[in-house]
Design goal:
Layout (H helix, E strand, L loop, with lengths): L2 H5 L3 H24 L6 H23 L1
């Protein structure tokens, strides 16, 4: 997900997106531990998306 797309979302949408991504990371970790995960780079991309979302959330909360 691109930073521009994230900035256009509302706070509620950002929180929902963050929750969904964390759930997906949990599932990917489970797949990784059982040896079923094929695309390990996906976990890294999702973690970066969470970081972007948290950054935008902090920016929006500080603005008011």
């Amino acid at each position: 997900m691109k930073a521009k797309e994230i900035k256009e979302l509302t706070i509620e949408e950002l929180l929902k997106k963050k929750r969904d991504i964390k759930e997906e990371i949990f599932n990917l970790r489970f797949q990784h531990s059982t040896g079923q995960l094929e695309n390990t780079a996906r976990m890294r991309l999702l973690k970066r998306d969470i970081a972007r979302i948290e950054t935008v959330l902090r920016q929006k909360e500080s603005k008011g």
